[in-house]
Amino acid sequence: MASLKDLRNRIASVKATRKITKAMQMVAAAKLRRAQEAAVAARPYSTRMSAVIGNLASAMNGQAGAPTLLTGTGFAETHLLIVATAERGLCGGFNSSIAKIAREHADRLIAQGKTVKIFTVGKKGNDALKRLYGKYIVEHVDFRGVKQMSFAEAQSVAQKVLNMFHNGEFDVATLFFSEFKSVISQKPTALRLIPADVSGAAPADLGGAVYEAEPEEGEILADLLPRNIAVQIFRGLLENAASEQGARMSAMDNATRNAGDMINKLSIKYNRQRQAQITKELIEIISGAEAL
Amino acid sequence: MAGLHFELVSPARLLFSGSVASVTIPGTEGEMGIYPGHSPVLTTLRPGVVTVTRDGGAAERIFVKGGMAEVNPQGLTLLAEVAVPMAELTAEVMAKQVSAAEADLADAKPGEAQRKATEVLNQLKALQSTL
After folding, report:
1. What is the C-alpha separation between A154 and A125, in angstroms, rounded?
2. Cα A23 from Cα A37, distance rounded (Å)
3. CB neighbours (10 Å) of residue A25?
4. Going by C-beta distance under 8 Å and a sequence separation of 6 or more, which residues neighbour residue A225?
5. Which of A32, A56, A83, A91 is catalytic?
6. Stretch among A87-101, A165-179, A266-280, B1-15 having the lowest mean pLDDT
7. Do A55 and B70 touch (CB under 8 A)?
8. Which among A115, A136, A220, A268 could bridge A78 via Cys, Cβ 3.0 to 4.6 Å?
9. SS3 assignment, position A13
10. How far apart are CA B33 and CA B31, in angstroms?
11. Measured between CB atoms, does A157 come within 8 Å of chain B?
12. Contact criterion met (CB below 8 Å) for B116 and B104
């Protein structure tokens, strides 16, 4: 049985932990607001971008010479999985749930006999996949020192992806990130980047008119598609940043509550034991006095 | 005729959304004035200044770099990689853009990409000198 001193120490240490988790929760809450605003603000750009590409793609449909970024290389042999996760842990199931869908996706592809390459963005995703899928990881970047994701980071990732694509290192690219639904709900998502996924975007109603393009459609698409990759990656990174803070906030809220429960239980135990000890000592004194 | 619905979006935020009288945009192949009822058009942008004329006639100037414009019956959508109102555009911001463009040029592969990067750099420098 633990002594009174042990219990006292235990209570003090749980209290210290509770202070830390409470502080982390508050920091996450403060960061969440900023990250959430950034993620929401970035949405219009990426949705409009998809809409424009959707319009162009439907105009280009069936025409020869459509860029390979749109139509794909015609093969689906080598798949690049871009796994975007956080740099830090202690955020509940956030990192592991992204790693999990990426892993399932990879397993499915491997079972079909495809070649899989993994590009991890963020330290935690790399850690989670390194052990089992280490041999598939071809590229890794992390943004440890970056406070606020800016478009430049997304562009640097996109540039790497595009270089790999132009060197013919893969046919299909899929981005894995966590979509920010709400503070308590983040949805791990897979988004196909190459060939561009235009199925979701409905072409605008032009009332029978045709787009006049300046320069030509093909040229615009050639300019637009690489940009679109950067934009989609940027969106993924921002959604991730918001999701991470949301996940951390709820994880730390839980931890704080658990610590509180634990302190209550330990205090009750401590008080009982103290009472028992006093009673025991009294009995000893009384029985000692009676024996006289 | 109702006003032109104009939206200016950068990756970081929605900068402008509303009804305006007209917008002048720096297209790759020349400046374009867009008025309500313009026929559908798509164009890429070169670095330059977008002039937005409000319904009352007041004009606003916004620096944009890289991106594209889409006109459809719903209005004009401008997707710009960088968009800064002229009031906030200082020599410092401009110098940063120029050095970024120089770095791009240094990275660019010879041929088409290099030609494009040089073009962008020259346009930026021209803008810088007017500042």
Report:
1. 17
2. 22
3. 19
4. A53, A67, A69, A70, A196
5. A91
6. B1-15
7. yes
8. A115
9. helix
10. 7
11. no
12. no
Neighbours of A289 (CB within 10 A): 8
Which pair of tokens denotes residue A188? Answer: 């791990």
Question: Which residues of chain B make contact with A220, given a CB cutoff of 8 A?
Answer: 42-44, 68
What's the pLDDT at B99?
79
Q: Does B129 touch chain A (CB under 8 A)?
A: no
ipTM: 0.74
Side chain identity, residue A64: A
Q: Is A35 a catalytic residue?
A: no
Residue A253: which residues within 8 A CB-CB, separation 6 or more? A25
Q: Do A204 and B28 touch (CB under 8 A)?
A: no
Residue in B79, B97, B104 to test binding to A, most A beta-carbons within 10 Å = B79
pLDDT at A254: 94
pLDDT at A199: 62
Sign of the alpha-carbon torsion through B78, B79, B81, B84: positive
B28 closest CB neighbour out of A150, A215, A234: A215
Mean pLDDT score of chain A: 86
Question: What is the β-pairing status of strands A172-182 and A78-84?
Answer: parallel
Rounded Cα distance between A258 and A35, Å, is 27
First-residue to last-residue Cα distance in chain A: 33
* A234 Cβ under 8 Å from any chain B Cβ: yes
- Write out pLDDT tens, residues B55-64: 887 888 888 8
Q: Which residues of B touch A209 (CB under 8 A)?
A: 39-40, 73
Min CA distance, B34 vs chain A (Å)? 13
Distance from CA of B131 to the nearest CA of A (A): 25
Q: How many distinct helices (H) and strands (E) make up chain B?
A: 2, 8
Predicted structure pTM score: 0.83
